[in-house]
Every structure is written in structure tokens, then in C-alpha cells.
């Protein structure tokens, strides 16, 4: 891996590297990157990750260790920094302009007070107020001590509390216009990054940098994208817009102070108009330019444009309100345009009702033209080969089949790419079994059936509770948990939604005979080595919902171009999740266990071989007794080890 990464860093091109869990892929790209930066001190390398957890691991552990090791060899120390989006840092304008209205901290320190209130029966408003006070005190301490007021280092808080001390990108006044611009934490973080050779950031900021002409990241000559299997989803999210009646109403109320009565009332009224139009609109994609909701969006765009023009520019609060109104205008205008490259659709949430979403039909072009064409790039993950090949992932980021292994031009430029699977230290065929329950009925849309519930309970009994259950929906997870609690009353079965996910995961790890059932957030990024997890249950192949507008639109686009929309979109999506979900089982060389897929289509359907080829190379069986016997032996050994 290090050789392949070094070739791209030194000579150009792009490389996709699949490096399984346990291979040490962070060092596989850090070693050649640090060697290059030691020899070229004026150059800069950016590493983009999907999750804050890996960002923190890199910045706090992997990079410092690798930098020290490289320095001992080269005699040169490479400077490094972390760069996050603006809303991850406290805003001194919000901290100081909003301060002075709380008196909860007169007797106790604010952080102690917040903790005391949280443990007691205090109302949510009191807890929120105490958290905000604690955050303001912490931000002032960071300003005094020369810190960056990064959210990761903040006192315990809720998202609502953090919103009181941070500012969205659009509402920032800019360092030159802000009275605290000289102390700005974001500007300080940018300054540190500009003076560093190695920068760790995230996929979302990389996407913003691509969309806005390279303004979010310092200029860099090489790019490494870790967790690259998540890149398309993260870039899609960063390029999407949302608009709801509640958002329009909230922004309208914020702007009323500076508006005349007629314009203020008009802004409030269009929020109601949007809510009524959404109630009348069908759920799903909007394609008719004459639809009522499109006419209302045009009205929202017009009114919000006039509001922006009417707000004064010499008042900091008015400028921030204007930025919020401009965001409403931009979203409404873009949605009303109905570009063929966008998917605009009506969605619904149980608590907040209906709202509108605009998502890009495809991000491959953006990644190709504004990322991969500009910077030699390494894309790496434990999951890049889907169906046994790199083509699906390569295509999703804008790399074409005919460019694979092509020659670079004389300047080292050109969109050529290579691919490498460095394998895994695990012997999956010896360490794990893939049990496909092909005797069960094909899953339907009516939730989890009685035969599947019985199978879940029997497997959980065999594994002595040491089970991670990955379900297609929250409803299925809850139904399975209820059934197993009734059938196995002595077992502790945790279900997503019972408590915060970090707390549930902690209990699952620390209580070996406990089972944990959940949905999508458990499929990726949960590391549970050892005998805590002997069995991973997957109730259903994780295809996207057939009525999911963006996936539907992407499938149709592939079909219209002459391809197979189902295989290119739905099957590829399912393959990625199956690879990630089944990858939860084997995390160490000593791990053993079973992955049970309770969907017979994995064996019977024509696309089944594609999906199985995307999963780790477990020994496969359709015999329930083999799986149950293996689990009983493993559970007995685990219990003896615990004793």
C-alpha cells in the first residue's frame, strides 16, 4: 500500500486502495506522505475523513506517532493541523453578545451546575441555560489561553446549547466586519492550517471546497481520502439543500425588527402558504414545473429576496438575519428552477411534518472536475471492492473504466487510476461463517415475519446473547427485541432508541451476554472486538427504499443512459452496507463468529453472487444446525474465558 501511495504522491495519477480492518492503512498512507513532505517542505497534503472519530484518532494518535517516527529517520519534523467546518468552533460574537442574561452560575461553576441539573429533575430550559453558560465560560477560557474552542473539547452539551455559541457559515459576518474578528477561533484555525504541511479535514469540507472554488481549504498539492466508501454520500449531503415552513417562519420572525409591517407580514404568510402547498403535494419527487408547490417556492424566493434588500447592512444582528433570509432565498430559488441535474422532492418527518429537499442527481462530475482532475489523489477504505471489483466505486467518484492503468502524460497529469487490494490479516474462511437462511420466506414490506422472529430468537439463544442485530428498519428492530425478550426472559436485549447510542454501545461492549439491536447507524463505524459479539444478524438485504426519491432518480438516469439502474444504484448501495455490516464481526485476529443473513435472496436471486462477493470471504452454509452448533461451541468457550 505504501508503495502504491508513494507512486501517486511522487508521480501523479489516482489510486484506489482497499485495506481491510487491521492492516494499519493510516500508516500505509502516512509514511509516504510524511516522506514526501520531508523532502518537499513547501508542499501540502490534505487528508479527508468521513467521521469525527477517525479525524480525532489521526490528529491525536496516528499522526503524532508517525511524525515522530519520520523525524527520527529524516531529521525533519512535519507540521500538521486539523481543519473543520465553521460551526465546529465557538463564535465570540455569539458568546459575548448573548452573555449576561443568566444567573445560574452565581454559586457553582457553570459546568458543575449543568451536571447537577442534568442528574436531577430540572426542566429542560434550566439545563439548556446552564449548558450555555458553561460553554461561554469555556470559550472565554479558550480565548484567554490561545485555544481554538473546538467543539470536541467543549463541556458536555446538547446541540441546542451549541447553537447558542456557534454560527452557521452563511451568518458569519467575516473577520473584517466582526468586532471580535481579531480573536476569531475559525480564523486562527485557518491560519494554523495555512502554516502546516499536513492537514486533516472531513469529506464535507472537501465538498464545500470543491463547490466554492477552493476557498474552504488551503492550497494543496496532494489529497488522501480515507473512508472513501462514504465519499459520495457525504458530498451529496454537503451539496443538498432543505427548506421547511418552520424554517421560513423562524427566519421571518428573526427579520421582523427591521422590516415594515407589510413586508414582515408577507414573509410570515409565505411560510403558511408553503406549509399548505406541501400538505397538498404528493410525497416524492417533484417534476412538474406547474405544480402548486413550485409556484409557492417562486413566491418564497421573491419575498425573501426583497427582505434581504430591505435589511440594513450596518447592524451585526441584521446582517446575520439577512444571511438567514438569503439562505431561504437560495434554497427556494434553486428548488423552483427544477434543474434536470437536481432531484427536488417532498419528504415527511413524524415530529416536524413535511419539508422540501434538493439533492444533486450525481456528484461524480463534481468530484471528477473539481477534485480528482486537480490533485493526485489516494482513495482508501476497508470497503472499495463491490461485487469483487473496484469499477462501481470508481465510477461513482467520476473515474472511467478506460482510464484504469492508463499512462500519465508528460507532466504527470491526466485522470488515470490504478487499484490495489492489499488484503486482510484475517483468515475469514477460518474465523467466520456466513449463514444464509434460505429456508425463510422472502421479506415483504409488512415488517418482520414470525418465521424470521423465531430464527432471531434461536440464534440469539445459541450465541448466549452475544449478538449484534442489524435491522432494515427501527420497526423491525423493536419487533425483534420484543419477541426475544418474551422468548428469552433471562437475556438483556438492548434496542436502539432505549437510550443514546453511545451508552447502548458501551453497555454492549462491557456486558458480554447482552444483545444490541439497531438500524443503519450500527452498520458502520462500531468496533466491537472479542467475545462480546459472536453473531451478527442481518434481517434483510439493505436495499434503499423503493420510494426513496434520490435513489429512484439515480436508477432512472442510469437506465436512460443504457445501463442497469438496479445493479448500478440499488445493488451497489446494498453491497456496500452488507460489506460494512458483516465487517462488524471480525475485528481482531482472535475473533470468531457467525454472520447470519435472514434473507434467502442473498442465495437465490440472480444478484446474490454480486452481493456475496462484496462481503468478507467467510465459509458459507445454508444449514441452520451448523450455524447453531458453531455458536453454541463459541458461546461455551467465551463463558469459560469470562469465568
UniProtKB/TrEMBL annotation:
Keywords: ATP-binding, Helicase, Hydrolase, Nucleotide-binding. InterPro entries: ATP-dep_Helicase_C, DEAD/DEAH_box_helicase_dom, DinG/Rad3-like, Helic_SF1/SF2_ATP-bd_DinG/Rad3, Helicase_ATP-bd, P-loop_NTPase. One of its GO terms (biological process) is nucleobase-containing compound metabolic process. Its cofactor is [4Fe-4S] cluster. Pfam families: DEAD, Helicase_C_2. The keyword Cytoplasm does not apply. SMART domains: DEXDc, HELICc2. Belongs to the helicase family. DinG subfamily. This is DNA 5'-3' helicase. The lineage of its organism: Bacteria, Bacillati, Actinomycetota, Actinomycetes, Propionibacteriales.
Amino acid at each position: 500500500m505504501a508503495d502504491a501511495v508513494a507512486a501517486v504522491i511522487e508521480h501523479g495519477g489516482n489510486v484506489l486502495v482497499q485495506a481491510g480492518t487491521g492492516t494499519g492503512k493510516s500508516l500505509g498512507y502516512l509514511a509516504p506522505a510524511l516522506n514526501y513532505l520531508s523532502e518537499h517542505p513547501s508542499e501540502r497534503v490534505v487528508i479527508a475523513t468521513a467521521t469525527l472519530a477517525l479525524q480525532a484518532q489521526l490528529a491525536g494518535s496516528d499522526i503524532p506517532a508517525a511524525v515522530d517516527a519520520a523525524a527520527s529517520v529524516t531529521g525533519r519534523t512535519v507540521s500538521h493541523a486539523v481543519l473543520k467546518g465553521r460551526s465546529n468552533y465557538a463564535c465570540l460574537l455569539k458568546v459575548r453578545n448573548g452573555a449576561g442574561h443568566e444567573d445560574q452560575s452565581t454559586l457553582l461553576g457553570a459546568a458543575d451546575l449543568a451536571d447537577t441539573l442534568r442528574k436531577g429533575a430540572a426542566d429542560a430550559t434550566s439545563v439548556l441555560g446552564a449548558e450555555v453558560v458553561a460553554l461561554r465560560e469555556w470559550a472565554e477560557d479558550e480565548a484567554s489561553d490561545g485555544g481554538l474552542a473546538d467543539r470536541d473539547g467543549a463541556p458536555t452539551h446538547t446541540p441546542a446549547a451549541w447553537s447558542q455559541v456557534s454560527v452557521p457559515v452563511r451568518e458569519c459576518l467575516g473577520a473584517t466586519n466582526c468586532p471580535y474578528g481579531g480573536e476569531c477561533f475559525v480564523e486562527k484555525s485557518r491560519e494554523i492550517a495555512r502554516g502546516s504541511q499536513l492537514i486533516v479535514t472531513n469529506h464535507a469540507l472537501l465538498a464545500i471546497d470543491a463547490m466554492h472554488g477552493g476557498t474552504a481549504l488551503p492550497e494543496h498539492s496532494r489529497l488522501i481520502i480515507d473512508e472513501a466508501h462514504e465519499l459520495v454520500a457525504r458530498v451529496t449531503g454537503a451539496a443538498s439543500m432543505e427548506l421547511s415552513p418552520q424554517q421560513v417562519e423562524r427566519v421571518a420572525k428573526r427579520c421582523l425588527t427591521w422590516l415594515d409591517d407589510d413586508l414582515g407580514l408577507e414573509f410570515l404568510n409565505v411560510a403558511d402558504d408553503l406549509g399548505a402547498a406541501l400538505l397538498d403535494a404528493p410525497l416524492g419527487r417533484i417534476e412538474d414545473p406547474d405544480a402548486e408547490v413550485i409556484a409557492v417556492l417562486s413566491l418564497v424566493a421573491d419575498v425573501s429576496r426583497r427582505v434581504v434588500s430591505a435589511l440594513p447592512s450596518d447592524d451585526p444582528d441584521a446582517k446575520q438575519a439577512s444571511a438567514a433570509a438569503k439562505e431561504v432565498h437560495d434554497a427556494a430559488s434553486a428548488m423552483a428552477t427544477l434543474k434536470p441535474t437536481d432531484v427536488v422532492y417532498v419528504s415527511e418527518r413524524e415530529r416536524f411534518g413535511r419539508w422540501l429537499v434538493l439533492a444533486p442527481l450525481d456528484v461524480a462530475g463534481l468530484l471528477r472536475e473539481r477534485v480528482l482532475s486537480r490533485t493526485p489523489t489516494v482513495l482508501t477504505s476497508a470497503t472499495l471492492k463491490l461485487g469483487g471489483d473496484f469499477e462501481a466505486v470508481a465510477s461513482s467518484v467520476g473515474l472511467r473504466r478506460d482510464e484504469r492503468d492508463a499512462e500519465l502524460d508528460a507532466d504527470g497529469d491526466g485522470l488515470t487510476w490504478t487499484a490495489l487490494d492489499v488484503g486482510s490479516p484475517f483468515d475469514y474462511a477460518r474465523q467466520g461463517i456466513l449463514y444464509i437462511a434460505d429456508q425463510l420466506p422472502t421479506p415483504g414490506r409488512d415488517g418482520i415475519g414470525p418465521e424470521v422472529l423465531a430464527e432471531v430468537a434461536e440464534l440469539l439463544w445459541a450465541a448466549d446473547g452475544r449478538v449484534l442485530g442489524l435491522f432494515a428498519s427501527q420497526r423491525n428492530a423493536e419487533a425483534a427485541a420484543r419477541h426475544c425478550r418474551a422468548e428469552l426472559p433471562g437475556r438483556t436485549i438492548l434496542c436502539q432508541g432505549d437510550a443514546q447510542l453511545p451508552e447502548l454501545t458501551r453497555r454492549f461492549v462491557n456486558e458480554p451476554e447482552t444483545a444490541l439491536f439497531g438500524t443503519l447507524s450500527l452498520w458502520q463505524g462500531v468496533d466491537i472486538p472479542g467475545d462480546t459479539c459472536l453473531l451478527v444478524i442481518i434481517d434483510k438485504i439493505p436495499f434503499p427504499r423503493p420510494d426513496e426519491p434520490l435513489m429512484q432518480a439515480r436508477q432512472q438516469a442510469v437506465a436512460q443512459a443504457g445501463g442497469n439502474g438496479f445493479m448500478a444504484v440499488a445493488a451497489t448501495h446494498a453491497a456496500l452496507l452488507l460489506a460494512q455490516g458483516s465487517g462488524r464481526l471480525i475485528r481482531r485476529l482472535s475473533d470468531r463468529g457467525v454472520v447470519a443473513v435472514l434473507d434467502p435472496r442473498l442465495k437465490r436471486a440472480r444478484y446474490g453472487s454480486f452481493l456475496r462477493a462484496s462481503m468478507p470471504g467467510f465459509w458459507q452454509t445454508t444449514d441452520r444446525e451448523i450455524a447453531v452448533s458453531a455458536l453454541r461451541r463459541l458461546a461455551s468457550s467465551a463463558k469459560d474465558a469470562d469465568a
